[in-house]
Design a protein that fits this description.
The complex is a heterotrimer of chains A (about 200), B (about 325) and C (about 425). Chain A is α/β, with parallel strands linked by helices. Chain A has helices at about 15-25, 75-80, 125-130, 135-150, 155-165, 165-195, and strands spanning about 1-10, 30-35, 45-55, 70, 90-95, 120. Chain A is built from six helices and six strands; from the N terminus they run βαβββαββαααα. The N and C termini of chain A lie far apart (about 30 Å). The relative contact order of chain A is 0.17. In chain C, helix 1 runs parallel beside helix 7 (about 140-155), helix 8 packs across helix 9 and helix 11 (about 300-305) packs across helix 12 (about 330-335). Classes of the chains: A alpha/beta (about 200), B alpha/beta (about 325), C alpha/beta (about 425). Strand 2 of chain B pairs parallel with strand 9 (about 205) of chain C.
């Protein structure tokens, strides 16, 4: 079973991200379960959503305590929420930010981490660029696909079409495609660096 | 021998009842084919205004709908005295659910009929909801307002006797000021029901701007029947409030039911009118305005206002309320008066 | 057809397939998505010949359902928690009158203190109302149970409550198999009422029944629940023959055949329990699970048969009888008491107000149970420090303030911002 935890704030599409991840996994014939941590719905409040992906029926219902991957949609949460709680060693971390892990003060935390498990992505900008709204969730989802290889970009696109239509869907697909490429390139160069090191 | 043609001057009037009226103008009650929807054998008190009003109203509704009518009834006197298990005096399909939900139950019945009609039911079945003032203005208020707001195709009839009679004459929000009830006793600083209280549901119904609102009393059979039949020509939410004296609750003689209804109208205490979509369209004029005292005296529930030291200030206030009704609902025939 | 969708929407689709004629509902978390789903389908013409009514309260919702059902229309509504309580008078009225209304209850805790998260206190509070109460383990079962519910209700002339965990099931995206209209039509015929308001055959429904007949009328309600005990498994069999899967029924045993410890529970928590049980079985522990699907009627015989050879049962429930202990646990004890079955029983109150039930806690709990090292009654994961602090506060001063606010303040300083 592969467990993903997505952190963000109300209004950033965290819950939709988890749902879309589950749809993408479903399209690849996996079993998937997505659900939010059910807080009062309020824009700007911290939100957590979960997604489990497995090859057989998922019966477990508890919140994800030991994720295999983290997607952090809002880096300001790093100050107030323990987003890394329970993260498995060498788990995937994707952060929506223009800063680096070091600049975010996470250098110590990820010191011994495999470089190709970590990535940052200016997802909010991608959202603005392709859909005209500062929504980071779809680019991050595509970035996660590239980072983890758990789902394909094609499946992300199917999930986009399941949730959106018309121009918004088209914009999201463009944003997803760009995000996927960016992350894929970054991971490749991280691997090359590691190989040379 | 020459033939002297006899002129019956009473022809065409109500003077000799229905006998000399053209059939279309005769009351439903005079019709041999009336359904007698509330059949005899029910357990109402002698002189019960509600039993009379219900029979008049439902027979008229049946007549207007070609006998295609379903009724939802709130808990109360009418429901209790008409269905003492294992008997029922209703000749129509009739349902009693709870005290406060008659309007909502009627909404459900109307919705089901609508679907049945879509699926091929030929009959144009209509729905009536009925309840006393307690079930209407108090506990059923929310459901009634909801039904009005959605404009559901239901005629709601409120039998107003100004109190929770079935449970022993307690005060409702429709109880007139100064009236004695078991919970507004004639003691203390303000004997009887307090002033400044009381919801006049017809005005609230008008505020919802539903297609048709009317008031009536059991004193005028034809007026009541006319209003019920007229209500049935509209689709959507309709409301009729009928004043129905309760001899037991009012402390009145059982033979005074119709007389008291007439006095309520003629003093202006109970305005009789019609409204459509929130605007007054018609009022039943008072031929000769009577002082409220004439209405109050025959009822023991107002007895504490009279006697050795009459409650003059209270009587003045009650008169003022009646005067206000006369103005507000245009109850005077300007030419006649 | 397999789909990945939100539980509420799966239920909405199942209800739509049942050809409802009148739907009336009032919004309340966490049922809102179900009602919005069917509402949209009606408005868009995806459900034909159906009237969708936006009512002004839950009391109105059940009342409209009563009128509609009595007029012969297949009627559906949904609610939760406070909404269920607000309609209680009508809930009893519906079952007393024998009207086959189907209602989803998206299980949510009852306040005060106000809490929008999942537990079973709402449905359980109505266990004596005469309604049939079925608890879904997964979203697949939730949608399947609605289809079975309409048939069950109409055959028995009794209303049915389909209970599904609020948020945990209603708001979870998971894989479901949505049946075809042909399958549902083959299973569920059109509604033939036992009693109906019909202008061609007038009847009076809702008479006052006095002492001379009330007991007999009420006994019939009891009798109907007994009939339901027979009908529910048959319904599940029939469902399987048309839809091809196990769904519904009275109970669902899992690895109980040689189990020494049997955990009994209802609803979505069964999934987490099964994962825990599998891990313990791998380690050689003889433990199994008995899921209760039909809470009312309570399957006394089926429960007794399932547990009779175990050493102990651990009844884990998301509700409790204040001052006494368990409610499900009491029904379970009724099942085996007096039958000469020697069995320990432990009550565990868990998941109140949406507190997550974790595998880790369950492991610890079941291990203790295996050693018979559990008290009779356990409140799982209760923070005793916080409770004792409040009790101390109340002992010290009269004006100790609202208990809930005090506890929240104590807890918020240490809460982890997770689910």
């Amino acid at each position: 079973m592969f467990e993903v935890r997505i952190h963000g704030r109300g209004g950033q599409g965290v819950v939709t991200a988890a749902e879309m991840l589950s749809i993408a996994a479903f399209e690849e014939a996996h079993h998937a379960q997505a659900f939010p941590s059910f807080g009062s719905e309020r824009t700007g409040a911290p939100v957590v959503a979960f997604c489990r992906i497995a090859e057989k029926e998922i019966r477990l219902r508890e919140p994800i305590m030991e994720p295999d991957a983290l997607i952090i949609q809002d880096p300001t949460l790093l100050q107030s929420v323990d987003v890394f709680s329970g993260l498995k060693k060498d788990g995937f971390i994707l952060i929506n930010t223009k800063s680096s892990f070091e600049e975010l003060g996470l250098a110590d935390y990820v010191r011994d981490w495999p470089a190709d498990r970590l990535c940052t992505l200016a997802a909010t900008d991608l959202g603005l660029k392709h859909v005209g709204r500062p929504m980071p969730n779809v680019p991050l989802l595509a970035g996660f696909a590239a980072l983890s290889g758990v789902i394909k970009l094609e499946s992300v696109i199917m999930a986009i079409n399941a949730k959106f239509s018309g121009k918004v869907a088209a914009g999201n697909i463009a944003g997803a495609t760009e995000a996927f490429e960016l992350v894929r390139a970054r991971i490749e160069s991280a691997r090359k660096e590691a190989a040379h090191a | 021998m020459s033939f002297q043609p006899v002129k019956f001057y009473q022809t065409g009037t109500f003077t000799v009842g229905n006998r000399l009226l053209v059939p279309e103008e005769r009351s439903v009650q005079a019709n041999m084919e009336r359904t007698n929807s509330l059949n005899s054998g029910h357990r109402a008190c002698q002189g019960c205004g509600e039993a009379l009003g219900a029979r008049y109203a439902i027979d008229a509704a049946m007549h207007a709908t070609n006998n295609q009518l379903i009724a939802a009834n709130a808990t109360g006197c009418l429901e209790v005295f008409s269905t003492p298990y294992p008997e029922t005096s209703w000749q129509i399909p009739w349902m009693h659910s709870l005290f406060g939900n008659a309007p909502a139950v009627a909404t459900g019945i109307a919705a089901a009929i609508k679907i049945k009609r879509l699926k091929g039911l030929k009959d144009d079945v209509r729905v009536v909801a009925q309840g006393g003032d307690g079930g209407t203005t108090d506990i059923g208020f929310g459901c009634l307002s909801g039904m009005f707001e959605r404009n559901d195709d239901v005629l709601y009839i409120c039998y107003d006797n100004g109190g929770y009679m079935n449970t022993g004459v307690q005060r409702s929000s429709a109880t007139p000021p100064a009236a004695r009830t078991a919970t507004t006793m004639p003691v203390g600083q303000q004997p009887g029901n307090v002033f400044g209280q009381g919801k006049f549901m017809p005005a609230i119904a008008m505020a919802h701007e539903i297609p048709y609102v009317a008031t009536a009393t059991v004193a005028d059979l034809r007026d009541l029947e006319h209003k019920v039949k007229k209500a049935m020509t509209f689709r959507g939410a309709r409301y009729i409030q009928i004043l129905v004296p309760c001899p037991l609750g009012w402390g009145a003689a059982s033979q005074d039911t119709i007389k008291l209804s007439r006095l309520a109208k003629e003093t202006g205490t109970f305005p009789v009118f019609e409204a459509e979509y929130g605007e007054l369209t018609n009022s039943s004029k008072i031929r000769r305005v009577l002082p409220v005292e004439e209405y109050l005296r025959p009822q023991k529930r107002f007895a504490h206002l009279f006697g050795k030291t009459p409650a003059v200030a209270t009587l003045v206030r009650l008169q003022a309320l009646a005067d206000k009704n006369i103005r507000k609902y245009q109850l005077l025939d300007k030419e006649a008066n | 057809m397999l789909k990945q969708m939100e539980g509420s929407h799966a239920v909405a689709e199942a209800v739509a397939l049942c050809r409802p004629e009148v739907i009336c509902a009032y919004p309340i978390s966490p049922q809102t998505h179900i009602v919005e789903g069917v509402g949209e389908m009606v408005k868009a013409g995806k459900i034909v010949n159906c009237e969708f009514i936006n009512v002004e309260s839950e009391f109105a919702a059940m009342s409209v359902a009563i009128g509609s059902s009595a007029t012969g229309a297949r009627t559906y509504t949904a609610t939760a928690s406070q909404g269920l309580l607000f309609m209680v008078e009508a809930v009893y009225n519906a079952s007393g009158l024998g009207l086959p209304i189907v209602m989803t209850v998206a299980n949510r805790a009852i306040g005060a203190p106000i809490n929008i998260w999942n537990d079973h206190s709402d449905s359980i509070s109505q266990r004596d109302s005469g309604w049939i109460q079925l608890f879904a383990e997964t979203n697949q079962e939730a949608l399947d149970l609605h289809i079975q519910a309409f048939k069950l209700a109409e055959e028995l002339s009794l209303p049915v409550m389909v209970c599904m965990d609020g948020f945990i099931l209603t708001h979870a995206y998971e894989r479901v198999d949505i049946p075809t209209q042909e399958q549902v039509d083959a299973f569920l015929p059109s509604y033939e009422p036992r009693q109906v308001l019909d202008t061609h055959a007038p009847v009076s429904i809702g008479a006052m029944v006095g002492p001379e007949a009330f007991t007999e009328v009420r006994y019939l309600a009891h009798e109907k629940q007994m009939q339901a005990l027979d009908l529910i498994p048959k319904m599940s069999e029939e469902f399987k023959s048309i839809f091809g899967r196990d769904s519904g029924g009275l109970v669902r045993p899992y690895r109980t055949e040689d189990a020494e410890t049997i955990v009994i529970a209802m609803g979505s928590v069964l999934g987490t329990i099964k994962d825990t049980v599998d891990e313990m079985r791998d380690a050689g522990v003889k433990i199994g699970v008995l899921g209760i699907i039909s809470f009312r009627p309570f399957p006394l015989d089926a429960v007794r048969e399932a547990i009779r050879n175990a050493k102990r049962v651990v009844v884990l429930e998301k509700t409790f009888a204040v001052g006494i202990g368990g409610i499900l646990a009491t029904d379970v004890r009724t099942a085996f008491f007096g039958f000469g079955i020697q069995i320990e029983s432990y009550t565990v109150i868990a998941g109140l107000g949406g507190r997550p039930i974790t595998k880790a806690s369950l492991h610890e709990l079941f291990e203790k149970a295996g050693r018979d090292d559990l008290p009779r009654l356990t409140f799982l994961d209760l923070d005793w420090k916080v409770v004792n602090k409040q009790l101390e506060r109340e002992r010290k001063m009269r004006r100790s303030g609202p208990a809930a606010e005090n506890i929240l303040r104590d807890v918020s300083s240490t809460v982890a911002h997770l689910g």
